[in-house]
Design goal:
Strand content: 15-25%
CATH class: Alpha Beta
Strand order of the largest sheet: 1-2-5-3-4
CATH superfamily: OmpA-like domain
CATH topology: 60s Ribosomal Protein L30, Chain: A
Shape: globular
Structural class: alpha+beta
Helix content: 25-40%
Length: 137
C-alpha cells in the first residue's frame, strides 16, 4: 500500500521539481530531458548542477529503477555511430546522477541510437514512468 501511495504521488513530485536549467527540462510524461548539441556527449556545468538536484529528488524514493535512455541524430546510414554516441550520453547522465548521490545500482542505461524523428537527448525516467519503445533506427 505504501508503494502505491508513493507512485500515485510521483507525478506531483516530478512536476514540482525545481531542478531545471539550460539543457535540462521536465518531460510532460514525467521524468526529465537533457538536450545535447549534435555530436556531443559532454554535460555543461549547469546541466550537472540540475542533475544533482534531480538526484536529490530521486534518492528518497525507496524502491524502483531509474532508467536513463539516450538518442542521437547521427547519420542515418551508420547506426553504430548513433548507438555509440547515445551510449556515451546515457553514461554521462548516469555518472552525474551517481556523483550527486544516487545509488549506481538503481540506474539503468539504454542506448537507443537513432530513432525517428532524430533527437539529441537523454531522458531520465523514474519508477512508474513509461519507457520508450524503439522505433526506426
Amino acid at each position: 500500500m505504501r508503494f502505491r501511495a508513493l507512485f500515485a504521488a510521483l507525478p506531483i513530485l516530478l512536476a514540482a521539481s525545481a531542478a531545471t536549467a539550460e539543457g535540462v527540462s521536465p518531460r510532460p510524461e514525467g521524468g526529465w530531458r537533457v538536450e545535447f548539441s549534435q555530436g556531443q556527449s559532454a554535460l555543461s556545468t549547469r546541466d550537472r548542477h540540475a542533475l544533482a538536484g534531480i538526484a536529490q529528488t530521486l534518492a528518497p524514493i525507496p524502491a524502483g529503477r531509474i532508467t536513463v535512455q539516450a538518442q542521437a541524430s547521427g547519420p542515418a546510414d551508420d547506426a553504430s555511430i548513433a548507438r555509440r554516441l547515445s551510449l556515451a550520453r546515457a553514461a554521462a547522465v548516469r555518472d552525474a546522477l551517481v556523483a550527486a548521490g544516487l545509488v549506481a545500482t538503481r540506474v539503468d542505461i539504454r542506448a537507443l541510437g537513432r530513432l525517428e524523428p532524430p533527437a539529441d537527448i537523454a531522458e531520465i525516467l523514474p519508477p512508474g514512468v513509461p519507457r520508450a519503445t524503439p522505433g526506426t533506427r
